Amino acid sequence: MINHQIDAYGLSKTVTHNQGNYAAMMADTIARYKEGKPVLYYTWTPVLG
């Protein structure tokens, strides 16, 4: 769904969609932030119950 939206809105030149292990992705996001690089972070998990 996210990849479809990136393509549909022509964002592929400016947006990179990364998927993976939460801890590894969070570490990478924090490192990018500390280096002064741009970061847009969003996470979602289903509610189980």
From TrEMBL:
One of its GO terms (cellular component) is ATP-binding cassette (ABC) transporter complex. Signal peptide: none annotated. Residues 3-46 form the ABC-type glycine betaine transport system substrate-binding domain. It comes from the Bacteria. InterPro entries: ABC_Gly_betaine_transp_sub-bd (IPR007210). GO terms for molecular function: transmembrane transporter activity. This is L-proline glycine betaine binding ABC transporter protein ProX.
